[in-house]
Specification:
The chain has 169 residues and is an alpha+beta fold. Helix content is 24%, strand content 25%. Bound molecules: nickel (II) ion.
């Protein structure tokens, strides 16, 4: 295991638009370390900027907490189709201790390159669709707070300010 330190909001790197991954980028060690970090956290998704790497990739595994390993590596991901809008409660490893209610499309098709460099187009729904959109937001410098109304944001930011000092670093 080689878990990396996770950046906490409002670290400015979490508000930065990340650069595309280039073909010559060697990601093997980073991807392994990102999975180690995500599973240790424990979480179900982790984007590269959350460990200080400002590149467009994330890892997720929405099944492992329920006993089914479903690891995905999404490089240069984009949403090519989205439909429906549903609210859902989202935590974030970079905003520990706070849940935010975020409206998002219910079903998407995600296009990305996997770890082998193969182009994929995958339909996602339910929690997987929400998780992928949350992680893709990180690559655009967007956190859950940025998806809230000013009133809702004030409430959760206040809760975060109160809870954060008590969290282990
Ligand atoms: Ni997050």
């Amino acid at each position: 295991m080689s878990a990396l330190p996770i950046l906490y909001w409002p670290d400015p790197r979490l508000s930065t638009v990340c650069d595309p991954v280039a073909p010559e980028d060697d990601l093997g060690g980073l991807i392994r370390a990102m999975f180690d970090t995500m599973y240790a956290a424990p979480g179900r998704g982790l984007a590269a900027p959350q460990v200080g790497v400002l590149k467009r990739l994330f890892v997720m595994d929405c099944g492992w907490k329920d006993g089914e390993m479903t690891p995905m590596v999404c490089i240069n991901p984009e949403i090519i189709y989205a439909e429906g809008m549903v609210p859902g409660s989202e935590g974030c490893l970079s905003i520990p201790g706070v849940l935010a209610e975020v409206m998002r499309p219910e079903r998407i098709v995600l296009r990305y390159f996997d770890q082998e460099g193969t182009a994929q187009e995958v339909p996602l729904d339910g929690f997987e669709a929400r998780c992928a959109q949350h992680e893709l937001d990180h690559l655009d410098g967007i956190v859950t707070f940025d998806r809230l109304s000013p009133e809702a944001r004030e409430v959760v930011e206040q809760a975060y300010t109160v809870s954060f000092p008590a969290r282990p670093a």
